[in-house]
Amino acid sequence: MSTEQLSSGVRKFEKRYAVFAFIVPFAIGGAFYSFGFRSPTIEYEAQVAQSLATSTKDVIPKLVVTHLPVPQDVKAIYMTSWVAGRKDLRLALVKLVDDTELNSIVIDVKDYTGRISFEVDDPKIKEFGSPEKRISDIKEFIDELHKKNIYVIARISAFQDVYMSDKRPDLAVLRESDGAVWKDRKGISWLDAGSKEVWEYLASVGHIAYGVGFDELNFDYIRFPSDGNMNDISYRFYKQDVFSKGEQLRQFFAFLASYFAGKGPVLSADLFGMTTSNYDDLGIGQVLENALPYFDYVAPMVYPSHYPPNFMGFARPEEKPYEVVKYALDRARDRTLAASNTPSKIRPWLQDFDLGAIYTPELVRAQINATYDAGLDSWMLWSASNHYTKEALK
Questions:
Q1: Distance CA 364, CA 387 (A)
Q2: Rounded mean pLDDT of 12-41?
Q3: What predicted TM-score, i.e. pTM, was given to this entire model?
Q4: Nearest residue to 306 via CA among 361, 248, 388, 227
Q5: Residue 233: band (very low, low, confident or very high) from pLDDT cuts 50, 70, 90
Q6: What confidence score (pLDDT) does residue 235 get?
Q7: For residues 351 and 364, is the Cβ–Cβ distance under 8 A?
Q8: Running DSSP on this structure, what letter comes out for residue 266?
Q9: How far apart are CA 233 and CA 184, in angstroms?
Q10: Assign residue 336 a region: left if phi > 0, alpha if psi is -120 to 50, beta otherwise?
Q11: Backbone angles phi, psi at 98, to 5 degrees
Q12: HSE (side-chain half, CA atoms, 13 Å) at 18
């Protein structure tokens, strides 16, 4: 029966039987309800009400988190969490990827401050209070990037962590003189690389990042601190009389590999550029061969400006980007092969910032060409300011 037919019938009924129209529905309706029945009219009205209620609701489909496979040749830029949280700022970087050979973006999930850049549901992480709402639409943003076939990498600063060192000083690197939290020359504090609780916390951060859609977890500052008063430093968990710094970090690498085994995310590690040419641990525990077995990719930061004067006989290595990067990556390739690993695991960070020299498009491109000439096919550009040299890109 249509709505019009029903309305017409009701009007006729009321006109012809005014008294009964008032009394009978109450009597019959009461009887029907007493026995658990509803009249056709009441049933119909209920259906209409339910239909109207449903049709007026805004139905928002739940976003399904997806992941992309690793591109054959990763060509990435770095984006801070603050820029990622601003649609007007991040748009320019996404357009740069759209317009050039770039295909990947590295985004801070946890930077040196120790703050996680978006809200999380994990009760343990929330208990620490480290999440900060910098990127309010992290899932939606990653989904937008994935729809453009852009691979998304989560950068996680590991042991450099101001927030947790303040929140949990019992987990921090300490001063030997008074037991207070140790800080480097920049005033940045560090977590103890020997603490298993710290390891588990970092793994939880990675788990959360993968859960919101990041395809790869990139661990940075996986090292012991330096650039401070190293004569007044102590560790509560790292036992230097038991393990070398290199061995302590190797155990951490093994822990990460074991924790994420079979769980989906690709793992990568950032190392000092000189780990490709030095065989000691540089005083910070980083040894190339100790990282290779446990990560899918290893990213030496071969910024020419970070090499000391007279490296390779160059008074100013920053002015010789091709030569420095080619030498560093040749060493990395040879050592990776000697360790029975594939050279494709090496994915360098390259310099796109001015330090010691003005980095023109030619100097930026020289590093990319050096990477290819070393037999490697992937690279990432670093600029803390998030300003990149488009002219250097194809």
A1: 13
A2: 39
A3: 0.84
A4: 227
A5: very high
A6: 97
A7: yes
A8: E
A9: 10
A10: alpha
A11: -60, -35
A12: 1
Instruction: Report d(CA 246, CA 143) in Å as an integer.
Output: 38
Q: What residues does 272 pair with on adjacent strands?
A: 301
Query: How far does CA 301 lie from the centroid of its chain?
Result: 18
Three-state SS for 107?
strand
Q: HSE of 34 in the Cβ direction (CA atoms, 13 Å)?
A: 6
How far is CA 369 from each of CA 275, 322, 377, rounded to the nearest angstrom?
21, 7, 10
Distance CA 347, CA 316 (A): 24
The CB density around residue 211, as the number of other CB atoms within 10 Å, is 15
Could you tell me the CA-to-CA distances from 238 to 189, 241, 245, 288 in Å, in that order?
16, 9, 8, 20
Residue 120: phi, psi to the nearest 5? -130, 165
Q: Kindly tell me if the per-residue pLDDT of 28 is higher than 90.
A: no
The two structure tokens encoding residue 161: 């962590």
Give the lowest-confidence range in 10-14, 140-144, 171-175.
Answer: 10-14
Q: Work out the mean pLDDT of the chain and round it to a whole number.
A: 89
Angle at 349 between CA 251 and CA 202, to 5 degrees: 35
User: By the 8 A CB rule, do 357 and 386 touch?
Assistant: no
Spatial CA neighbour of 49 closest among 3, 8, 4, 1: 3
At 112, is the pLDDT very low, low, confident or very high (cuts 50, 70, 90)? very high
